[in-house]
Predict the 3D structure of the following.
Amino acid sequence: MAIGRNKIRQFTDAMTIQWANGKNEARLTPGVGRFVSHVGWYAEVGRDDEFDRFVYQAGIPQMEIRHPRQGATAQIVRHWNLGEQLRFFPLTSGPVATTVAASLSARNVAATIEAGIGLRWGRGEGERSKMAIRGYLQILQRGTDETGSKWLLYPRLIQISVRSRMTDELLAALVDHVRVCEIADTLVVDRAKHPDVIHCYELALPLGPGQEEQWGKGETTTVMPITSLHPETIDLPYLRTLWRPDLVVELALRDWPDVQAWAYEFSLGRYTEPTGQTPVPVDDAYTSNEAMAINGRSVYTGDVL
């Protein structure tokens, strides 16, 4: 009987993108001025040389964020200021439930992992839950009146990571993205070229600030949560503005097995992000409910809308 021989799996590192929800304090010009409340996406400078070159060439500015640390002096860390809005091609087959609690229930946790979603309850790390999704980032390069602005694709996996109550918000954004993909299924022009469903990675998910909310138990804090920026009404011209570049399909089919394996390790708490200077963020209040919505989606090489 042949037993075979395993090969040690090496997971692909992915640059981490984080969200400042208004509780963060930033100084938009490093070393100059005061720290003020900040909302938007950011990524630590110096964590990934290739990512640093990409955003530098795109003209993305740097800023400093003052990160509070429990029982210690606040730490000032330099970050790339990615702005309030970005576009993200999520490499996932989609959520299998609409809440964190339902996604991690005994009957759904395996399907959540298979969907390529990193999700787990906190384990004494200053968080009640933790979630991450991987995919491909587009950032807006501001142009001149002559050249105009354009969306630039970073051709490597990046990871959006959130904790505690913000996990509900990111999960809700994914659920809304599936809604748009399902609408796109009904609007595909040429089914001969695209006979399967529209997959989550085939349309960009626009992510940005939602409405201000009061979070916390007892004494509350005003925060700006993440939200999907998809409009309620979806039509074909809108979908065409979000359609993936051809390269995204090649990258997705190559990276999908690695993302599923990463999600499994993440769920067990065995995957840790590469060490940087950014401290673990302070925990937020966590709330959830048990509403369910099954939305499984497979990965497929598509064509055009």
In short: The helical segments are 49-57, 100-103, 109-114, 166-185, 236-242, 246-267. Residues 282-304 have pLDDT under 50 and may be disordered. The first helix runs from residue 49 to 57. The chain is about 20% helix and 30% strand.
